[in-house]
Fold this protein.
Amino acid sequence: MDTSVTIIGVIITILIGIPITLVFRSNITNRAKIKEIKKQYSQNNHYDFELTETQNKKILSIDQKNKGFLFIDFSYKKDTAYFVDLKDIILCNLIETTRSRLGTIEKVEIELVHKNTMKKEIIPIYNIENHYLDFNCLFEDHKLAKKWVAIINQNL
């Protein structure tokens, strides 16, 4: 009887241990990717992205001293990163694209307008095509985008 209890205990431990190990390995890999991307965009340690927020496989970072903004997105098939020197930006807006009949938000984007050229740079935060009507993700990403538009406008 003691042997069967021990065997069941070992099996339960293995069943719990394997997923936990996989989650930790994934987190370590993501941290290494984020660190490498930040290092790549720091331009020889000129930018230090001290203020960072992570949510729904999106990482937003800003260097408030040297005016640099970095957005990393791991939620799509291909990892994307956007770097913007905020010294060249005059205006930051939040753009929400909705479907006309339903009022459902299709896209949430951050629009940055360059000083000299007035060229608009669009950073996609949420796209309904990539999230398949996940309203929790939409709400969280929309809230995150509003917060970061305010942070960017404070640092312009």
